[in-house]
Amino acid sequence: MNANSAHLPSYLEQSEAVQARFASIRERDVVLEVRNLNKRFRSTHGEVDALRDINFSIHRREFICVIGSSGCGKSTLIRILAGLEQQSSGEALLDGKPITGPGQDRGMVFQGYSLFPWLTVKKNVMFGPLANGQSTSHAEREALLWLELVGLEKFADAYPHQLSGGMRQRVAIARALVNQPRILLMDEPFGALDAQTRAKMQSHLLDIWRNIDITVLFITHDLDEAIYLADRILVLKPHPGEVQEIIEVPVPRPRSAAQFTSPEFLATKARLEQLIHPAPVAESENEQAVKPHMIRFTNVADNVE
Amino acid sequence: MSTFPKLLRGMDASTRKRLAFGIGSFLLPLLIWSLVSYAPFIWHPKVMVTESGGVDYFQIGMLVDKEMFATEVENMRQAQQALPAGTPANPIYLPAPHEVAQALYRGLFEPLQQTDTLSMPASLWHSIQIIFWGFLISSLIGVPLGVLAGTYVPVGRLAEPFIEFFRYLPAPAFGALAVAILGIYDGPKIAIIVIGTLFQQVLIVANTTRKLEPTLIEAARTLGTRRLQLLSRVVVPGILPDLYRDQRILLGWAWTYLIVAELIGTSSGITWYITQQARYQHFDNVYAGIMVIGLIGFVSDLLLARLSKTLFPWDRSQERR
Q1: Which of A218, B183, B188, B291 has most Cβ atoms within 10 angstroms of its Cβ?
Q2: What is the pLDDT of residues A187-222, one digit of tens each?
Q3: Best mutation target, A110, A113, A114, to test chain B (most B CBs within 10 A)
Q4: CB contact, 8 Å: B216 with chain A?
Q5: Which CATH superfamily is domain B109-318 in?
């Protein structure tokens, strides 16, 4: 697949430090457990399995990325965990209690920011505490604290439309964290950001995660992002959505951008590429029908290459 | 004198250009009207008699057709009698701009000579009250019903088909019925405005509510908002700027039903003023009455639009206007 792959170590090889880290993670409590989870949709083609027999568990303060090609059901999975959708069968347990609907014990960050445009940054963050019956003064104190943590205390009175994409996503993170959830669910949160902002946000998210007691489930389709952030990567396979492999990322922590070219990183990436982009046989009928017929519109002598 | 150019200098080029176009859009029809009124060679199908000459039925100030005037001039010439004289004129139903402007001024600021009609301001005030109550009652029912129908699918499915049917029934058709039920005074007039506005209002508000981004509701739910709170904390604040815009459009709609409504039972308000003046052939007053309705609608909408900028500072769709 990759010319270098022959020289790479196996992605399964872990240094002693990494092994010790995973051992300590496994000793921690399980925060989220998913058992035999199934989701069937009724569509025009009859019943479709969006998720089939999903099993995994996440330990406290673990960082899990879910990765898969489009249509593999990763969004459905996170929406079920957030309580925004109901599974068809199986169960999802948070601290041993089944998830039945949305709740403040799970924070969610959406790709489209979804900040309330009519509220200032501060009031956006205050929304959760107020909805849960806390006093305004308490909510305000909490909001300012979390805004400081994401570095936006100066923008407390700005409206979301006055902020850049990266800043908006910081507000969304603060808004989710202020409820002090057990787990932070992130649905491709940096997907709409430019590469530079995205890299900044990734390291900022790791910073937050290092400093507070939070478990993260992060959905992405960016392989580098998944390896850079995650302890373990859950690879989903589409049609039907099934867990293909759960990879323990052998890249040691603390992570930095310099590790993008380390052998462990490249080995993991090679493995992910193998899983997600196998030999291109599975082209859909529609895509096969798209056959560009190139016509020359310029002078024969007028070449660009 | 000096404040106006200063005001202009304070604007940027695009605002100034937009203002110029805005003024131009009013000046253009006024220019056409002035041309037709003041250039004697354009249209002017009548002749106003200034001297009756030998024609026994001609009176000074009388309007006659051009052809008829020419025939009479020819007749008199052949009969060797004094020739009548006249100037080209427009029909009585097309007064010149300055006459309408004078009528508008007179109507608004001078007491009326006729004793059987109300003055223009009094008529207008009555009309404004009819509109106010009609629109208020319609909104009190229509806005909550629209928001509910847009938020909860079952409510929408239950309410909307009937409303969709009912809105095609012309509101004036209910005039006789409204009089039978509510008497001949203001009741039926308000009812017509309500019938004319309410059904459109429910559908428009429901549609606006449905356009609220669903992720906002989902985000609120993941933050711990309970079902009932969603309506007051997310749906209503989320649609408020659009709802306000809808209401502005619907208010204009209510005005269009005013004339029909005021003809029902005993005529009243600005409509009574207009029809009464038309009966006396005071067409300058008629135009003044019509124009004042337009002015009130236009100015109140401008004010409401301005107000929305202070009310909804987060609403970005305004910046594109």
Answers
A1: A218
A2: 999 988 999 999 999 999 999 999 999 999 999 989
A3: A114
A4: yes
A5: MetI-like (1.10.3720.10)
